[in-house]
């Protein structure tokens, strides 16, 4: 009989899991990829910055997996709302959870909930056209903005804030969002890290891109560019060299300024009705290597704070979850009998997109070893019949292709590149179900 597996989530981890099942299984296999949105690809569609077209091209690889005859995409199906874990275990031989890490970690400081204090994921979702975020959510009316964090997500946010609307018009940024970006009043962008340049989590390629922006001067204070110690990895040495070179630059008078700061930690977001400033404390490393405050403070006159200090997963209904690690507890991907996990939900938000491929392969090896020789479910109860009974009509892969085609047509009509994203569930469903 055929091995039937449900994969929950259609980001890279979920699609790599589907691919590994097809490649590794010695018996016939059918994989249903269930996704709460009408669109696949997860962070590749809604997390990669729109001007990073080379990274977004990985969608072409993921697309080929969804087109395998053994794989089926079922969009618009939500675990905990349309189906339960028990529903799935009654219809599939195994279930693999691959929903990623969808929210930002909090800073845990006073003023964090003021209007204008925003999780970077919300801002990224906004400019990437995620249907959960209203395109009118953000008004960039403050001359100064702070981005807390010195990793690649922070770099993406800073770069989008610094670019001109004309530069972004060639990307797939939703048209309403592009209009908001064209009206931006932002002149100064502060990117703030608690530690020194040698501790930053940038990749060298992304860091260099900041120094090549046509519309922004990059400013680094020479004293904050200094590092202690040696023996750094090649990656860290490259980052430090770039940052040091920036500290020797003189501003060229570009329209915007990117202030890259180190050895500062946020201690309070100031304001009454909304964000009016960010109070920072100078830091240093203790002998044990911990970040500690020095008692020296400064305040940035910002009207918006974007928090980018790491992602974390959220619990799934009916699935074990550790509040300590913010992951689903597992052993090589095994959660419980016939339940498995892959991706960031399994290991935490580490690695790059490609890391999910080996991670998924490990989970699938565990799954196949567990189910070897086990009697298969009879196949009389199907997810299709259950969804129809509950009035749920999943978005098919062909319907997703219709959404893609509508986005290409929209871009053509606007004279904007290859694709402009449709925003909102209604617009996407109209495009695939006229």
Overview of this structure, please?
There is one protein chain. This protein is of the alpha/beta class and 434 residues long. The protein has 16 helices and 17 strands. Strand 9, helix 11 and strand 10 form a beta-alpha-beta unit. The two termini are 38 Å apart. The mean pLDDT is 92.
Provide the fold topology:
Blueprint: E1 3-8, H1 12-24, E2 29-35, H2 43-46, H3 53-56, H4 59-66, E3 71-75, H5 85-89, E4 94-97, E5 103-104, E6 117-119, H6 120-127, E7 144-148, H7 152-162, H8 165-168, H9 175-182, E8 188-192, H10 204-211, E9 216-220, H11 234-247, E10 256-261, E11 264-270, E12 277-285, E13 291-300, E14 304-307, E15 311-312, E16 334-336, E17 339-341, H12 344-347, H13 355-371, H14 383-389, H15 397-414, H16 425-432
Parallel strand pairs: 1-2, 1-4, 2-3, 4-17, 6-14, 7-8, 7-14, 8-10, 9-10
Antiparallel strand pairs: 5-15, 11-12, 12-13, 16-17
């Amino acid at each position: 009989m055929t091995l039937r597996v449900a994969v929950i989530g259609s980001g890279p981890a979920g699609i790599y899991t589907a691919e590994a099942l097809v490649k590794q299984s010695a018996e016939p296999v059918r994989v249903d990829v269930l996704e709460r949105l009408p669109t696949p690809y997860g962070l590749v569609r809604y997390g990669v910055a729109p001007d990073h077209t080379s990274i977004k091209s990985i969608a072409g690889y993921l697309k080929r997996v969804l087109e395998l005859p053994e794989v089926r995409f079922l969009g618009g199906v939500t675990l905990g709302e349309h189906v339960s874990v028990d529903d799935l275990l009654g219809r599939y031989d195994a279930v693999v959870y691959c929903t990623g890490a969808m929210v930002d970690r909090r800073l845990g400081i006073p003023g964090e909930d003021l209007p204008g204090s925003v999780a970077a994921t919300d801002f990224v979702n906004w400019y990437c056209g995620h249907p959960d975020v209203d395109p009118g959510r953000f008004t960039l009316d403050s001359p100064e903005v702070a981005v807390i964090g010195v990793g690649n997500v922070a770099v993406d946010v800073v770069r989008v804030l610094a670019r001109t609307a004309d530069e972004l018009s060639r990307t797939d940024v939703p048209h309403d969002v592009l209009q908001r970006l064209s009206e931006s009043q932002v002149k100064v962008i502060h990117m703030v890290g608690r530690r020194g340049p040698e501790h930053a989590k940038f990749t060298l390629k992304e860091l260099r891109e900041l120094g090549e922006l046509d519309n922004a001067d990059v400013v680094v204070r020479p004293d904050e560019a200094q590092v202690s110690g040696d023996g750094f990895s090649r990656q860290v040495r490259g980052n430090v060299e770039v940052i040091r070179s920036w500290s020797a630059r003189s501003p060229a008078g570009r329209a915007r300024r990117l202030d890259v700061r180190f050895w500062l930690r946020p201690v309070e977001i100031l304001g009454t009705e909304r964000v009016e400033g960010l109070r920072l404390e100078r830091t240093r490393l203790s002998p044990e290597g911990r970040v500690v405050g020095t008692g020296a403070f400064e305040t940035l006159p910002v009207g918006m704070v974007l928090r980018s200090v790491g992602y974390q997963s959220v619990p799934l209904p009916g699935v074990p979850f550790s509040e300590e690690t913010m992951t689903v507890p597992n052993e090589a991907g095994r959660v419980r009998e016939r339940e498995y996990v892959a991706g960031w939900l399994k290991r935490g938000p580490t690695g790059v997109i490609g890391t999910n491929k080996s991670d998924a392969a490990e989970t699938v090896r565990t799954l196949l070893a567990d189910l070897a020789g086990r009697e298969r479910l009879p196949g009389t109860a199907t997810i299709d019949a259950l969804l129809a009974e509950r009035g749920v009509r999943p978005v098919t892969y062909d319907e997703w292709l219709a959404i893609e085609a509508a986005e290409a047509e929209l871009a053509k009509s606007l004279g904007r590149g290859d694709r402009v994203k449709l925003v909102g569930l209604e617009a996407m469903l109209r495009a695939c179900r006229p």
